[in-house]
Design a protein that fits this description.
single chain, 340 residues, alpha/beta, Arc Repressor Mutant, subunit A, seven-stranded mixed beta sheet, 16 helices, 46% helix
Length: 340
């Protein structure tokens, strides 16, 4: 009836609604639920209202929980669900929010969600997770052999638990076989815009980003991560080498000379260092220097050539290329964003 009326009045028919189910659980991050619901429900609406146009909603969103009862979020807010996971209406997309509480306990408490995720995937639905919500998708085996990301602070735990996943911790968004992941914290903003573009096109996504005053197209979360020195091992010689590197990273360092200092052949040095830390000695040294550079860039009144010298490099251009490769940002862009 509505399409016939639109035809006779000369109006374009309203676009079909894309249906989304948020599979919520106790201890979830509230903003990863309410925020993405806001994005979906205002797609086609906010921009139209700003420009005195007729709103055209593009999504219908349902909040579901294990028993249809409230979702008790980690911040104490309670969100009322519309149905149980199993009673959720037919959907195009299932969204898993951030696990705000203990990850292992959340996986145990919500084990009933695992076969449902597998079933939805087999039915051809899209599935998406934000931040640590990726642990639930991985637990269901839906990320095995596919690219995935999660919060940078939980990447080591994720990699240990799910070695079959192609984990890409620097990426903000990953897309596999109808399975999408977003990185840490507020990456639900980027995930929401990505999914709006997937379903509604770039114009709708750009309009929504402008209406919500969001930067669109971010791809990297490495600039936000603290790079952990990998010291959780039992090799005392490698630990001593790491201590020495910490104290001398501003110096010109020959790795072969460093091996000899600790009475190792270069080959044995490289093998033992990688076995203990997961990185080659050169990669580890670059990691230390980039982390130190990040700290220095957050302070004012230090020229880039001075900073470069303080982290053991003579050539500003080569260090800038390394910094961009590791963080996804130039030193200048990093300073502009994070300077105190």
């Amino acid at each position: 009836m509505s399409s016939q009326l639109a035809h006779h009045t000369g109006e374009a028919p309203s676009p079909a609604l894309h249906r989304v189910t948020i599979a919520a659980f106790d201890g979830a991050l509230a903003t990863a639920i309410t925020g993405i619901i806001d994005l979906f429900r205002m797609a086609g609406v906010s921009w139209a209202r700003i420009h005195d146009q007729s709103p055209q909603p593009r999504f219908a969103v349902t909040l579901a929980t294990i028993d249809g009862g409230p979702c008790r979020c980690i911040n104490g807010i309670t969100l009322q669900a519309q149905c149980t996971w199993e009673q959720a209406p037919a959907a195009d997309l299932i969204v898993i929010p951030t696990i705000g509480g203990d990850i292992a306990q959340t996986l145990t408490d919500n084990h009933a969600l695992i076969p449902l995720l597998q079933h939805w995937h087999q039915q051809g639905l899209d599935l998406a997770s934000n931040c640590t919500g990726a642990f639930l998708l991985a637990e269901a085996g839906l990320l095995d052999g596919h690219p995935a990301t999660t919060h940078w602070g939980y990447c080591e735990q994720f990699r240990d638990q799910y070695p079959a996943v192609d984990l890409r911790p620097n990426q903000l968004i990953t897309a596999g076989e109808r399975v999408f992941c977003a990185g840490g914290g507020m990456a639900w903003l980027d995930l929401g815009l990505y999914l709006v573009e997937r379903y509604c096109g770039a114009d709708v996504a750009r309009s929504l980003a402008k209406a919500f005053v969001i930067d669109i197209g971010r791809q990297n979360q490495a600039a936000y991560a603290n790079i952990h020195a990998r010291r959780y091992h039992q090799d005392d010689t490698v630990l001593a080498i790491q201590d020495w590197l910490d104290a001398h990273l501003a110096e010109s360092i020959s790795l072969d000379t460093l091996a000899a200092r600790f009475h190792l052949t270069p080959r044995t040095f490289k093998r033992r260092f990688r076995a203990a830390t997961g990185e080659s000695p050169l990669q580890y040294l670059q990691t230390l220097r980039v982390e130190q550079a990040r700290k220095l860039l957050e302070q004012p009144h230090l020229r880039l050539d001075q900073l470069t010298s303080q982290v053991g490099y003579e050539d500003v251009s080569s260090f800038s290329r390394l910094f961009r490769r590791r963080t996804g940002m130039s030193p200048g862009a990093y300073r502009a964003r994070f300077q105190r």
